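Q: Could you fold this chain for me?
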Amino acid sequence: MTGNSNRAKLIKGYVDRIKPGPKDEFHWDTGVKGFGVRVTPKGKITFVVQGRIGSAKEARITIGPYGVFTVDQARDEAREHLRSMRRGIDPRDLRRQNEAMKVTLRQGADAYLARRGMLKESTRSEMDRHVEQVFAAWKDKPIASITPADCRKRYEEMAMKGLRGKGPAPAQAGIAMTTLRTLVNFAADEYKRLDGAPIIEHNPVAIFRKDLKPSAPRTRQIDRRKVGEFWYRVSEARKTPFNSDALAGIDLVMFLLLTGVRRNEGAMLTWDRVNIDEDDPANCWWHLPDPKNRNPVWLLELLTNHVPQGITARHYLEPRT
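A: Sure. Below is the predicted structure, expressed as structure tokens.
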């Protein structure tokens, strides 16, 4: 037994009378071999257990502080640890397994997002929204406790009633389950049992293997006869906007119609990504440094025929370095 030779029957009265020394000291129980307390120079008292794990070398394991554990509670914990050690099980591994089994969906999602630093902010927000809203009832429960039946029930609720019960939302239900599948797969890789096996042997979302198919791409196009009418109405609305926010919204709609960029990308344009040169229209451009496909885009603007309020009607995609 390492440490000094303080040995006694550890009871509350004895522990209360222990005085700290100039360095860490150990007091070992005469009743349960390997059970003791560590006392720091500042007087902090912590229960410990020390023993040999199978045929390996000895290991010392912290049980917990005096006050959180009573002497009797700590002694019972020590006996459990010593039994595990005799079977060749490291109680520290057992503790890690137990902690892994308790990891909640929220904790698993946080760990996943922390490891995936390259995820776009829109993707991170979407995954977080699914955890906080679609799976709100599960977010504080162990991720290992989610069952296929749970997934089927939640999927059907979303598909038939939507998130807020306002109408069917099968596409959103599928996207949410795809997010859950990703998080469960991450947890299965990240959190293990004592033997190295994952705490989640089968992903509960696997029941949708044939159901969760990618959404079909949208092929419907706006009737050309409606484009002119829409442009005219937007142009007329721009002449008498309700306020500056409305004007900005109208300009954004016109910009999206002319360029085809995504709404979020257009709305996030800042002046350092836009150049307007009235003296040299060929030097007008705008720049998307990080679009959804991660390929930076420069659009050079060539002034042609006059359109309302100086908005140009022709834009040519051209890479620029």
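A (continued): Residues 170-190 form the longest helix (21 residues).
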